[in-house]
Amino acid sequence: MATLTQDHLNNIQAYWEASNYLAAAQIYLQDNPLLKDPLLPAHIKPRLLGHWGTSPGLNFIYVHLNRLIKASDADFLFICGPGHGAPAVLANTFLEGTYTETYPDITQDENGMRYFFRQFSTPGGIPSHVSAHTPGSIHEGGELGYSLAHAAGAVMDNPALIAACVIGDGEAETGPLAGSWKSNCFLNPARDGAVLPILHLNGYKISGPTVMGRLPDETLTALFSGYGYNTLIVRADDPIDIHQEMAMALDTAYEQIREIQQFAREGKKSNSPSLWPLIILRSPKGWTGPVMWKGKHIEGTFRSHQVPLTDVVKDQDQLALLEQWLRSYKPEQHFTPDGKLQPALAALAPSGNKRMSAVPYANGGTDVHPLRMPDYTNYAVSVKAPGESIAEGTRELGKMLRDIFELNEDHQNFRIFCPDETSSNRLDAVFEVTERCFMEHLLDNDEHLSPDGRVMEVLSEHLCQGWLEGYLLTGRHGIFPCYEAFITIIDSMFNQHAKWLKTCREIPWRKDIPSLNYLLTSHSWRQDHNGYSHQGPGFIDTVANKKSNVVRIYLPPDANCLLAVMDHCLKSYNYVNLVVAGKQPSLQWLNMEEATKHCAQGASVWEWAGNANQGKPDVVLACAGDVPTLEIIAAAWLLRKHLPDLKIRVVNVVDLMALSPKEYHPHGMEASLFSDIFTDDTPVIFAFHGYVRIIHDLVHGRPHPARFHLRGFMEEGTTTTPFDMVVLNRMSRFHLAIAAIERAERKPANEAEAISYFEDKLSMHNIYIRECLEDMPDIRDWKWSDI
Amino acid sequence: MATLTQDHLNNIQAYWEASNYLAAAQIYLQDNPLLKDPLLPAHIKPRLLGHWGTSPGLNFIYVHLNRLIKASDADFLFICGPGHGAPAVLANTFLEGTYTETYPDITQDENGMRYFFRQFSTPGGIPSHVSAHTPGSIHEGGELGYSLAHAAGAVMDNPALIAACVIGDGEAETGPLAGSWKSNCFLNPARDGAVLPILHLNGYKISGPTVMGRLPDETLTALFSGYGYNTLIVRADDPIDIHQEMAMALDTAYEQIREIQQFAREGKKSNSPSLWPLIILRSPKGWTGPVMWKGKHIEGTFRSHQVPLTDVVKDQDQLALLEQWLRSYKPEQHFTPDGKLQPALAALAPSGNKRMSAVPYANGGTDVHPLRMPDYTNYAVSVKAPGESIAEGTRELGKMLRDIFELNEDHQNFRIFCPDETSSNRLDAVFEVTERCFMEHLLDNDEHLSPDGRVMEVLSEHLCQGWLEGYLLTGRHGIFPCYEAFITIIDSMFNQHAKWLKTCREIPWRKDIPSLNYLLTSHSWRQDHNGYSHQGPGFIDTVANKKSNVVRIYLPPDANCLLAVMDHCLKSYNYVNLVVAGKQPSLQWLNMEEATKHCAQGASVWEWAGNANQGKPDVVLACAGDVPTLEIIAAAWLLRKHLPDLKIRVVNVVDLMALSPKEYHPHGMEASLFSDIFTDDTPVIFAFHGYVRIIHDLVHGRPHPARFHLRGFMEEGTTTTPFDMVVLNRMSRFHLAIAAIERAERKPANEAEAISYFEDKLSMHNIYIRECLEDMPDIRDWKWSDI
């Protein structure tokens, strides 16, 4: 247990002062960086931006973690929940030298320091939050709630790693963070690293108090014991030395972590689950900053959230107070006259890759390996002719995922993250080789459950997403299968991850990150036993809106296409791949060779389904998504049967962005290929899996976009038959056939007759649905399903 | 304290059996509803759908709540987190007679019972979840996580109401639910009703165990004491009478609630916050259902989640087991031969509006009042000429909101829900008349904080949304101001609310519900001191995808338009109104009379900004959103100055859906008006606040959609100047002017010269940004902001 010498304590205090100085100076100073001259208005930045409130607490935690790293030689990753406390994190990367190594223009001297201050939150400089630009970070924190989930994901399969995760009491109010405390039930101390949560209570958000900040110690201790933590509380207002107290708390926490790990790694079994340590640091908001101004408290209140003194240029007294505040950190003592940190202080930080600002975990990972992939064609479904065999796409994919687990067993770098739906989504084959991970006690009736499982099932889309992000950002691979409608729960998390990826692409030193792969199944069109709440394809639109160099959207129409697409996605880096495919038994269209070619091109004419593949068609029938494909092919069949002189061409789109003009998305088809497929002016009837909006957008910029007539999900749904679903949304084969006839360039002779026949069919369907309660048919046995 | 007589206990047991019978029979039977005949395969539904696992526990809770209601005459609202347990909820509405009163075809006799069973989860029947079709419900539960927040919102300002909120252990794993426990810190026992959470632990989700289900009692008790609850545990496996135990727990909980309320309502102050009661019911999943099948446990395991016996038609032994199970509920005893519940049992349920299936709270509310609105024109900003004065739109709106609080003070039916941003969003005027609501202890330095406040600030968008939904669905009014980028946190909650509203419109007995009003400010274009993580306008797309009869999107370009739009929204019912408007000081365009007219029409030509208002223009410059409006007007000014012979027309769109063809949205402009404004074929340069995708969609179906050339947010952002933001996204006045020249129908003479001048300006800007670190300008002082 640490009993630090007075010298060591003094040095820690000095290092903390140095970092607090750099944090405050980033907010305030454009010149006079070491305060060698008296502070003048001209030294102050013209616009004061940045968040002071959380920064001194972050600096305090950081210097103490440094001490522990030096003492233990352990691997620590720093996750900064209050990412707007960038002045603190940046200050430490600067003190450790990593900032200069990463950005050589920011030298470790007076001039470098001036630029370091100037660039903060300035146009042409760096963002005001801990962004991808910050060395050592995998977590921006601008949107709060995900720090603890990121930390847990990062330590999975990284047994040597401890993620120190600072959580502000603002962030602690969010739902996703509240749901993240129980991540400890899914971390296996034998194979995974550890998360050390440090809950930093400074009492306020932007302008109001925080709930946790007002709770007494015993209430918090009870709460966290319920979550499986042993709480160590450090209070800034205690009379005893705060540094000594923090050092002891960290040493205790570290020892408890190592004890739990050693116990587990020696294969011992505990009777009761171990309590992981958690540190609560209670400190004033804006700690060590200005105490009062004009009779109002600043330190310890919401008034220090951003810039505590805002009128320093105009108000001489305030400028004096600022100078007094900045000088209280003794820059002239802690830095040499040429702006270097005093060697005695610099020696406090770890060196090389042990520096939290330089850990390889935070930039592509350590000991990383591309995923070993089996040959996806091994899992091919036999398709002798289109529409003659039935398969369940996800069940076939499950076999490939099973083999991926086996092939990469020695690297321990692949996991499935899923909200309790792996079996429901028919990926069960994976349970032949792995299990669901769970650390609570097991019961006789449990199936496929073990602390060693690599399938992470928790009924929280937020946790699945947060863990997976943490896992990927540290260089490993994964997939997130989810019910389609409920993936929108993590819309905003996806947004932030896509922004992170986009930013990383612009930062030369950022290494490649394995892609985030979504498999959305149990989709909107096949909710036979759920209903309207489970019917929502909107995630496609959310993904499509992000930067085109990071997003990919695939709608494989059958099992072989699903395999080809997933093979491609799982091998890729730096993307978000969205794959939407049903799990239900359905007709198969392409053999593996055709599927491979089709997926590579993104969209193609399915010649066997139409009758005008070469010459100019009267109408093009296009589709994207498995259910729309079935309906379009059925519509084509109906048209060929009832109106054989109508020239139709059938097109399937598997890579949605192929529709986009190339200048808007790298997967966009060349103009000539687009014209070959869709012609330049033939009317197109397009059946789409999602909301039609996005297709209207994608074809904007293509020849004659107005000729595209769309059908898709129009927010009509309930618990009903699959065929009734397409009728309700006016996307049934009959609707499509009628639309094709009405819009075809050349009117076929018996047009009216055919339309009337199709309308009759729809009337019969509606009667059938009304009569369902009388007849009680098997709704799997949907009357109109046969082509 | 309840010590129930044996008779009473027997009756409760019988009522529970009757409801369990109806729940199981809804899943299985299409005929022989009272089992008068031996059970045959022909009596079984052809497809077995529904969720049994949670149903008997829900029935158990329901009958006990009924006992308490009868004993106390209290107002209880039943919130069913496990909404897929609809068989149980529906069973109770049927037993109480409410179902028959609501749907007279489902009579209270044998034939009605048969239809009641048949309709469940059948095409043409009712959904498989507790949907808007279910009397007494304000909560569907298909997407888990929001039950407790809905319950809290429902009891706000309903002092007589107790919301009994059943939370499954699956739902308890979600982030939003975990974040909802602390709703009790925001409920004031003096003025609000109470939430009684009933955590129903049955141990399993779809196929895996639940975290909470595996935690020991003492761990859960500690956890919930940390959240401010006094936990009462009822265990189904206890040897003592489970009914007696549950009755005592409910009586205890009820007494504790009334004690807390009485204390508060008598104006007494407590030294420590009261612990609200919470009941944990531990019962087996699929309780009272089949115990085993072929050596595997069903009751008490995940195997009873949905349909516990699936082969009853084909397997004679299984059919026998089903019959034995169903008969164990003694339908022949509990129902009369003609299918009525035995009078002695029927007498157990409350009557009239006390029935939880009939409480008026769940259908439009009790004692409801339209919001009294001040005359919005009172808050008009003086605009003598366009672009000459500056105002902050949200600051003006704050004054109107302040007066709404005052005007509706006696009805206590209006609140603001906001994630700690009321001041940041410049709505502070409301703090002249009310405060932030907070129930923890207050400190000297707190500002605008009180248990009586009507501004609900919590750093959780999920809680803000959930509380507001609960508040609205019980007939009150509210508004949710939020940072634009972070509203996507509740995308999926909005989806479900929009679906609920859409469904309610199709149900004649559902009463009107006040609209859900979003005010998105601190928007993507003005994040001077945050950055890329705070830049995301995607919520517009999420809203636009929902059913057009419930969604409205407004982008008021200035303060007067914001006031006119918000007046309209706050008075409306049954919609989701999305309003996007900045908070920063900005130029004002319209006086109140003009603003009112403009907002009513949705889009109009701003004649003063163009030079071709009557004749045919060479190019139309259109805009939607405050920043795009500024840039378009500046572009028009530049064009008129540099190319005076170019005929331009400026159009502003305030009601986004006005662009849509009328068949797709009721706000869609008539074709003739659209043509009057945009012409039929003139090129349009359109600057849009959000992603351009949606405009491409909205104009699809209008004459010559390909002529619309869009500029908008293209995922470029960082901490920079407002003007740099529009440059980065190619939407600056110079970009727009160049695009207008390049696309104008008639080429002006000095075209090349003008383009080159504008390109020079952009180069100068880029140099300026690069030099910012040298010059350190005030970034509010953006060099190109003046028109």
UniProtKB/TrEMBL annotation, chains A, B:
Domain of life: Bacteria
Positions of the Xylulose 5-phosphate/Fructose 6-phosphate phosphoketolase N-terminal domain: 4-366
PANTHER family: PHOSPHOKETOLASE-RELATED
Domain Xylulose 5-phosphate/Fructose 6-phosphate phosphoketolase C-terminal: 583-784
Keyword Lyase attached: yes
Cofactors named for this entry: thiamine diphosphate
Family membership: Belongs to the XFP family.
Keyword Ribonucleoprotein found: no
Protein known as: Phosphoketolase family protein
Keyword vocabulary terms for this entry: Lyase, Thiamine pyrophosphate
